[in-house]
Amino acid sequence: MSEPLEEIRATRIEKVEQLKNLGLNPYAYKWESTHHAAELQEKYADISDGEEVNVEVAIAGRIIARRVFGKLAFFTIQDETGTIQLYLDKKTIEAKMADIPKAFNHLKKLTDAGDIIGVKGTIKRTEKGELSVYVSEYKLLTKSLLPLPDKWHGLTDVEKRYRQRYVDLIVNPEVRQTFRRRAQITAAIRRYLEKQDFLEIETPVLQTEAGGAEARPFITYHNTLDMDLYLRIATELHLKRLVVGGFEKVFELGRIFRNEGVSTKHNPEFTSIEVYQAYGDYHDMMNLTEDLIKTVAEEVLEINQVNYGGNVINLDNPWRRETMHNLVQEKIGIDFTQFKTLAEAKTASKEAGIEIPNDCKSIGKLLNEAFEQKVESNLIQPTFVIDYPLEISPLAKPHRSKPGLVERFELFIVGRELANGFSELTDPIDQRQRLEAQAAEKAAGNLEAHSVDEDFVAALEYGMPPTVGLGIGIDRLVMLLTNSDSIRDVIAFPLLKSHSAAIQSFDYDMEKKILRIEFAHGGVYQYHDVPELIYKRLKETPSAGRYFNAHIRDKFGFDREV
After folding, report:
1. Is the pTM of this model over 0.90?
2. Rounded distance, CA 435 to CA 437, Å?
């Protein structure tokens, strides 16, 4: 039976006191290493079993395994680059550390797995073939009070991994590699754009008007100025102001905040890059987007194919470009360009099995619903979906030859939107009309609509050159390139519900229409015959508990899992 956590902690606190009584600081100030573990493993990979190299090295790391045999001990330590074994011999250590009586015994009795230690010594390969540092002296750098987990798997532990990411990083090297890859990906994106003469300029996170996207903002309050402020939901409008001011190629890679649902694909705080180029159109930006992602994959991963969720994604081939109308017609056989009235479109859509939301007030919005419900998840290989309805694209330029549409594209890979771009609307009168229509929706209760940003309209009235813009979700791009299932796997510290939240987690079996909900009190229930739309709304709502009470509780049959 394992020792209770509090007893382990109490024992280790006692060891801290013993170390202090011996005049040893259990929390050191500094250590200078000559090598990392991976360097030593690579540099001395060819030495033979039993061979010793008489070159002194210094290394530090966390003890992740201990084996003690009388006058001999073997520790495995882990640093940022990997692991290496320490070969600890009582005679050698006590000869070198004569100023510390019983130094080897202290090492045996007062250290634990999880402690951080620095050692000096030479390199040898044991008779059993393990490359080791033959330790002549050591220094305890940090005494840990809590033990490392023996096992770190299973559904319950997945939640704990996100809450205690620091432990996750210690015990799962592949998680460290994911975040290393993330840093390399963002660096490669910046390098690519800088080579194309784009300039990164920072824009405000706190804004007086939320705009640039249809999303619900977070609202805060500035005491001194006595005014509400919004955390930005996009960088778009300020970057466009910079284009008006004369910067022809600008971008910003930064954090965006949207007061919306949490799911495997959505986090309220996420990273996005927006790019704007004067004198170009959406064809130019599709070319740039394709080349950018291909270049990043080749630079960081040295690949032109990605394995994701059982699919092999070929990045090397020319990426497909197809209109939303054509993709919907291919999938469900409905040509939305033929409808004269919304009623006709709704009738045909219902016959095709499309669930129509109450706020769907135009043929364009219904087309988008058909696309999202029937087409989107099937776009596995890189596909630019182009020419969107004007109603859902308030900042995009009208299509030059297709009335009712705009020159907009979205990039889909493995059934997910990865990028969004369009020829920007530069007509200030048209822009004002669209923003006023949005403001009317806000007044009618649409929480994702926004007021007119008068300063932005004023900027357009000074004249903005023909411009094209792009937004890429960095988290989703990292998910793709690291084969990560959830956005939480690529965000170091994702936002999680508090332990006291009514609903801990939920998932949905689309084939069986079973919604499985785990509650904070520990109960797990399966709700039967739940429409997919209910599950989607549950994922999107800012309050899962409130939505459950209003739309799920007492409305569906259920069983409790035993």
Report:
1. no
2. 5
